[in-house]
Amino acid sequence: MIGFDYHADMVDEATRAAVRERVVAGGFERFEIADRGRYELSGAHGEAELTETLIALAERQLGVGLAAVAQRWTRLRRGDYALFKDDQRRWTGPGVEVCVDVSAAASQEGQIVYAAPDGGATVPQRPGGVAIVDRRRPMARYERYLGVRFADGEIVRLALALTVCQR
């Protein structure tokens, strides 16, 4: 089975709202290539305190020192998705990926799915949830399509790419 751990309710509602407001105010760029994905993306916005907290959580979980090498904020709305082919072009691994959902509301759609030769894992779309995924072996991910049931909601997530280092 892949190295995967999910922590529900790790980021409180007030923190999520403040972070989401700052990230959305910073702006996103629309990305649309049919065989890769359709979503909004931002790599420019930093949230130092949140990033440090997530790195510390991943270090405790995995028992290794970690350092951020890349980050990306994504915003998905009705009709948005990201396919395996998109992950192949955006992932900066090998390393560890930490994802946090700062959305305002939960849905039954938009999950992140990880697949590896020895199994897979699904990250539910739940505000405040944090997934820690050890991607030091071959693995791919995609984000499930947001259908009409999602209405006018949006999913806002941070994905951190981390590398193992000495601490």
Describe this structure in words.
The strands form two sheets. Strands 1, 2, 3, 4, 5, 6, 9 and 11 form an eight-stranded antiparallel β-sheet that branches. This protein has helices spanning 13-26, 48-62, 84-90; strands at residues 3-7, 29-33, 37-42, 65-77, 81-82, 95-101, 112-116, 119-123, 130-135, 140-143, 154-165. A hairpin with a 3-residue loop joins strand 2 (29-33) and strand 3 (37-42). The mean pLDDT is 92. The protein has one domain (3-165): Jelly Rolls (Sandwich), CATH 2.60.120. It is built from three helices and eleven strands; from the N terminus they run βαββαββαββββββ. With 167 residues, it is an alpha+beta fold. The chain is globular and about 45 Å long.
Strand percentage, roughly?
35-45%
In the residues, how many domains can be counted? 1
CATH topology: Jelly Rolls
| CATH C-level name | Mainly Beta
Radius of gyration: 15 Å
Total number of beta strands: 11
Helical content stands at 10-25%
Mean pLDDT: 92
Give the H and E element order.
EHEEHEEHEEEEEE
Distance from first to last alpha carbon? 27 Å
CATH architecture: Sandwich
